[in-house]
Amino acid sequence: MPIQTPSGTAKETMEPAFKIPDKGMFVSDYNKEIFAATRMPELVKILDTTLRDGEQTPNVALSSDDKLKIAQALDELGVDIIEAGFAVNSEGEADAIKKIAGAGLKAEICSLCRASTSDIDAALKCDVDSVHIFLATSKVHLEKKLRITREEARDKAVVSVQYAKDHGLIAEFSCEDGTRTELEFLDVVHKAIQEVGVDRIDIPDTVGVMTPPAMTQFVAEIKKSVKVPLAVHCHDDFGLSVANSLAGILGGAEEIHCTINGLGERAGNAALEEVVMGLLAFYNVKTNINSRKMAFVSRLVSQLTGIAVPPNKAIVGENAFSHESGIHVHGVLSECSTYEPMRPEIVGKERTFVVGKHSGVHAIQNKLREYGLELNPDQMKEVVTRVKKWAESGKKLDDAELLAVAYDVMGQEAEPAIKLEEFTVFTGLNFTPTATVVLSIDGEVRRASETGVGPIDASMSAMRAAVSKNIVLQEYRLEAITGGSNALCEVTVKLGDCEDAKLLSLGKSVGSDIVTTSVDAMVEGLNRLWHRKLNANVGKEKRRAY
Ligand code: KIV
Ligand code: ZN
After folding, report:
1. Distance CA 463, CA 396 (A)
2. What are the Cα distances from residue 445, in Å, to 52, 464, 516?
3. How far is the centre of ligand 2, averaged over its atoms, from the C-alpha of 138 (Å)?
4. Tens of pLDDT along 266-302?
5. H helix or E strand, kind and range, residue 362
6. What residues pair up with 436 in beta bridges, in sequence order?
7. Does any ligand 1 atom lie closer than 6 A to the CB of residue 204?
8. Are strands 45-48 and 255-258 parallel, antiparallel or unpaired?
9. What is the CATH number of domain 322-410?
10. Domain residue spans in the chain?
11. Cys-Cys link to 78, which of 10, 289, 314, 451 (CB 3.0-4.6 A)?
12. Is 276 left (phi over 0), alpha (psi -120 to 50) or beta?
């Protein structure tokens, strides 16, 4: 059959697959052709297992309080079922599950259990709504790990589901290593547990060994003898967990197990953010997830677990909506769908333009305009040349360096108007940190003292007070360049003016003392703001910046 174009005409008279966007998602219309024939569920349920499988990520251990914070965020995100932990695992784990179950969340709160009544008793003590019971069914697990026969496995499954139902719980059941279990035996277990009232059946791809077409077929085959809703639980060992989860929906599943940022055992589980956006973009299948909160929840989970989100991670990675190359920036500036598959705000992100080796005039001009700088064509050409040279030498160029280049080219990085004459800071235990600065501004001496929550805060406030109360510290970034207590640090400050949103400046410094390095960065930032203000005021015949 010839592949159909989006307009339905055959390939020979092909029209472009691209259509001007409507819903803020710009995927290929060819997807519609492929999936048009498949019956899709109207809504897919999301079971989030960040607090259980996600916590099985090597080196992750969350406190009860942090688990509660994540559960609350998941609830606000719109997750249907929160797998809050494995109650029988430890007292701490049970305590966290109980706290989450008692927090009045909208989501169904679930505990993982082995197919054993004592595990279910532990879950019951936590007041959960549901249990996710699992028992391995593949030959290798039965023979080498559990050392039980298939009949024994089937009976254990039945007894545990019966016990959960007798105690008023919602019961979801997983044949662990399901995708390496013979279909005939899965059928036996699924039939037996349906007879005792199982509510949902999950199909785990425990070691991530399926391909999407196989997953679709496998789920469809299982569905023939299953009357309750089916879920899929896919691991990412071959990087296919999201594709396999979506494929499972094509096969007839109605629920997906996933985790924030794709955390989980080994290579992790299917990432919630990718699964949800994939369902919507490719199949037009909805979930209860509020996608605009995804970036926030991703950051929260990363902070609390200590597992950084890779910059190139789909949907929520730092680079997911960043553009560097000149051609791409030019395209995105005229129409974002040229190089973006969806609008960043849909997932709570912002588009960024990064200046580097591949940047052209458009990217650099756009970045400088963010700071209110307008350069003439010759100046722009010079800035672009210098930026490329800088980047080619292998050095990272951030906004502060770009501004320094631009100011230099514009001849505005002349003699600094603001000089630091004196600086003292007092700090200690049971003592309010206090900083005093003496600055000379175009020869006029100004002095200010301020307190703060720490020595840096006090110093930043004193410097702002000495120049102008209009100055706002919009961002303060501290990075350690080397290790040890005598490490080199890099401080960047971003300053704004509360009366003029377009007045922005950056200052940056490197040193071994974080307080004095912060002060140096502030002096640079203040000088740039001063020059900008002076320039802005020229037409108004004002000699002073502030
Ligand atoms: O990956 C898996 O098989 C699991 C089970 C507990 C369902 O996490
Ligand atoms: Zn798992």
Report:
1. 29
2. 61, 14, 20
3. 15
4. 999 999 999 999 999 998 899 999 999 999 999 999 9
5. helix 361-370
6. 424, 449
7. yes
8. parallel
9. 1.10.238
10. 1-38, 39-305, 322-410, 418-545
11. 289
12. alpha
Closest ligand 1 atom to Cα of 53? 8
Q: Which residues of 33-53 are buried (b: 16+ CB within 10 A; e: fewer)?
A: eebeeeebbeebbbbbbbbbb
Alpha carbon separation from 307 to 54, 60, 244, 500, 510 (Å, rounded): 11, 8, 24, 38, 27
**Site to substitute for ligand 1 among 233, 256, 265, 269, most atoms within 8 A of C-beta:** 233
The number of the ligand 1 atom at minimal distance from the alpha carbon of 56 is 8
- Which residues neighbour 432 within 8 Å (Cβ) at sequence distance 6 or greater? 451
| DSSP label of 512 | S
How confident is the model over 459-471, as pLDDT tens digits? Answer: 999 999 999 989 9
Identical fold for domains 39-305 and 322-410, yes or no, is no
Inter-residue contact 155 to 135 (CB < 8 Å)? no
Q: Cα–Cα distance between 118 and 433 in angstroms, integer?
A: 55
Among 10-24, 129-143, 162-176, 349-363, name the one with the lowest average pLDDT. Answer: 10-24
Pocket test for ligand 1, best of 49, 52, 53 (most atoms within 8 A of CB): 53
Q: 205 C-alpha vs ligand 2 centroid, how far in Å?
A: 8
CA of residue 99 relative to chain centroid, distance? 25
User: What residues flank ion ligand 2 with Cβ within 5 A?
Assistant: 53
pTM for the whole thing? 0.81
Task: Give the separation between CA 87 and CA 107, rounded to whole angstroms.
Answer: 18
pLDDT tens for each residue of 313-346: 999 999 999 998 889 999 999 999 999 999 999 9
Distance set, CA 271 to CA 127, 256, 268 (Å): 28, 10, 8
Task: Enter the tokens of residue 419.
Answer: 């000089």
Distance CA 99, CA 104 (A): 10
53 lines ligand 1 (CB under 6 A): yes
Closest CA to 136 of 172, 177, 171: 177
CATH superfamily, domain 418-545, is: Alpha-isopropylmalate synthase LeuA, regulatory domain (3.30.160.270)
Length of the chain: 546
Rounded to 5 degrees, φ, ψ at 386 are: -65, -40
The CATH homologous superfamily of the domain defined by 39-305: Aldolase class I (3.20.20.70)
**16 backbone φψ class: left, alpha, beta (φ>0; ψ -120 to 50):** beta
How far is ligand 1, taken at its centre, from the CA of residue 234, in Å? 9
The label of the residue with tokens 């929840």 reads 297
- Considering only CA atoms, give the Rg of the chain: 29
